[in-house]
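[09:14] KT: can someone run the structure on this one? pasting the chain below
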Amino acid sequence: MDALHPQPAPDDSTGDEEYLLPSVDALMAGTFALMTGYAQAGAECPNRGLIVRKLVSNLFFLANHPQVAPPMRCMLGNLRTRWQILLEEAGAQGPREPVPTALWHTAPGALQ
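[09:31] RB: done, structure tokens below
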């Protein structure tokens, strides 16, 4: 398998985006996906804090991974620090109450 070009999983009959990646590449891809999810989630999303916690964890492991080059490790460590500050600032503000959403259908007045 070519390390620069991940191959689809051999049993990929569903056509999903499932690839066989080395562990460091898989961790990097998952971290980028979390960053994308955080950027796309609205400020009222109750899971943003969890996303940041997982980002901090992933960046810690990436910054200490033996297959990552030292300059990249330094950059990932700095990035982790920035996300950690964001996590601490969000924690200082306290947990957010979930915003109620409108129901699609009104609740019935009585049950049968």
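[09:33] KT: thanks! Strands lie at 7-8, 19-20.
[09:34] RB: yep, looked fine to me
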